[in-house]
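TA notes, week 10

Several of you asked for a full example with nothing omitted. So below is the full record: structure tokens for the whole chain, then the designed sequence directly under it. When grading your own attempts, check the secondary structure regions first.
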């Protein structure tokens, strides 16, 4: 007799995070929506992940193992392929859901127009001590393609609930990207489906640990890939948006101490929007070396206040 199809499939990719993934799993099993299946994809762990997951007695859990590591995007795609529900949600193994996460998003999708295929939510960012340090509060509603070409407004993969048909249509996650996979996925989804956001914190997002976002080189390559992959669509929005991407990439390169490449990207941003004070200030700061650039843009508060005043002065000049 075939198994009954659940309402939601939940995919958790993990690698060598045995105790963290158990916490994530328990946050899924504690959902007020109980009609779900939980697919945990172990991406070649060398710790006791399998044993700890095997010790959780719940028939809704399915463990799939990659013999060798293939990356988070590949693990999520494996989970999508194994899923049976019409809706798929994702949870990173070091994050947690609040109990009503799926309930709220399912209600939002049911109330939205029929061509809505993605539900987002707000997330609180948690540091290594467990303190809340920030909140990601996207406002995506309806047609959001232009907004997503500007920035990754979804915040994190752990907030997403997506119709399986839409995931199949766009081909799931791009496994060639070293970072920004959720941003790329949502850009592709937004070409033909609407988004809805639940304006409520439903996810606890861990900002510490060995996340891919802590690997500066991977983040740089991920942002460069977004600019390369979606460059034509970005250019169609105008030079101001192109400048945003070149400035962002240049800043990341400078923070990764790749100053020559960073200066080139920052210079491109200035050429594309020559009267933007932030771009001029960023390019000028990049001439002072990596330590000075970091201090001026991310470091000492007094220096940052000075930089803001300088930008303000430049803005006044640009308005003349």
């Amino acid at each position: 007799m075939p198994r009954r199809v659940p309402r939601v499939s939940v995919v958790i990719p993990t690698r060598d995070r045995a105790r963290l993934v158990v916490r994530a799993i328990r946050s899924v099993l504690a959902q007020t929506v109980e009609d779900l299946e939980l697919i945990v994809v172990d991406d070649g762990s060398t710790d006791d992940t399998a044993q700890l997951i095997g010790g959780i007695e719940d028939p809704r859990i399915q463990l799939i193992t990659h013999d060798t590591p293939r990356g988070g995007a590949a693990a999520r795609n494996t989970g999508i392929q194994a899923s049976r529900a019409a809706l798929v949600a994702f949870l990173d193994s070091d994050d947690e859901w609040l109990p009503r996460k799926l309930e709220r998003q399912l209600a939002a999708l049911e109330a939205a127009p029929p061509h809505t295929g993605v539900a987002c939510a707000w997330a609180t960012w948690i540091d290594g001590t467990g303190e809340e340090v920030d909140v990601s509060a996207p406002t995506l509603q309806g047609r959001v393609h232009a907004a997503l070409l500007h920035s990754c407004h979804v915040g994190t993969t752990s907030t997403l609930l997506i119709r399986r048909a839409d995931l199949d249509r766009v081909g799931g996650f791009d496994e060639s990207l070293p970072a920004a996979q959720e941003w790329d996925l949502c850009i592709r989804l937004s070409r033909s489906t609407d988004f809805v956001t639940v304006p409520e914190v439903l996810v606890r997002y861990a900002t510490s640990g060995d996340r891919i976002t802590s690997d500066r080189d991977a983040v740089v390559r991920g942002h460069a890939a977004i600019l390369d992959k979606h460059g034509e669509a970005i250019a169609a929005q105008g030079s101001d948006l192109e400048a945003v991407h070149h400035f962002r990439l240049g800043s990341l390169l400078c923070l990764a101490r790749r100053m020559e490449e960073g200066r080139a990207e920052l210079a491109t941003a200035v050429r594309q929007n020559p009267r933007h004070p932030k771009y001029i200030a960023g390019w000028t700061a990049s001439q002072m070396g990596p330590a000075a650039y970091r201090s001026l843009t991310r470091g000492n508060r007094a220096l940052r206040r000075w930089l803001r005043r300088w930008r303000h002065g430049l803005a006044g000049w640009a308005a003349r």
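The beta strands are 8-14, 36-43, 61-66, 87-90, 96-97, 116-126, 132-136, 161-163, 194-206. Use that as a sanity check on your answer.
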